[in-house]
Amino acid sequence: KICYINPATPTGRSEDGTHGGEYIAISKWFDSKPIPKYIFDIIIATTGECIRFAACILNLRKKSIILCAVYFWCSGASAANKTIIKQLICLKNVFGLSLCIMGDFNMKADQLADTTWLTELCVAPLLPAIETTFKPKANSLIDYCLLSYDIQHICTVTPYLATPWAHYGLIYAISLRPR
Question: Distance (Å, rounded) from C-alpha 81 to C-alpha 59?
């Protein structure tokens, strides 16, 4: 496997608090490449914040897309989460590619839709067919994927319920030969 990692970084919210630790693991047989460090440096300079997601470029048969793994703060439509959106918009604009953003958004898709963020990113949610993704709380579907409009048809999601953690797993399948 090839891993694209965003290490946890101090947040300044507490002495020992961190944010981050996202990663993407891809089979070495798939055609993927890292986002160059200088692009992340530009995004950091633009937003004034550490990168809050992991990302790579996945080259499909006739199309390349940006895969992202994010973790939103537990604060809804906050300034901190808006910064993550700004960083993702910067990444999308640099490459001009479609986005596949998988993550723990710490809010339901309809709450995210109440912001302007989905429109700004030109994405729509892909939700798993389960009531909750957070085991301790019923009706808490907070883990899902956001897909650019033009790639809605190439991705599917299947819940993985046998996890020992508080969140159920989600298995995403992406067609490597989209039409």
Answer: 28
Alpha-carbon span 45 to 3, nearest angstrom:
25
What single letter denotes the amino acid at residue 175?
Answer: S
End-to-end CA distance of the chain: 26
- Output the pTM of the full model: 0.92
Residue-wise pLDDT for 26-67, tens only, equals 888 899 999 999 999 999 999 999 899 999 999 998 899 999
Percent of residues, the chain, with pLDDT higher than 90 = 76
Q: By the 8 A CB rule, do 88 and 123 touch?
A: no
Report whether 66 contacts 92 (CB < 8 A): yes
Q: Rounded to whole angstroms, what are the CA distances from 135 to 8, 127, 163, 168?
A: 24, 16, 10, 7
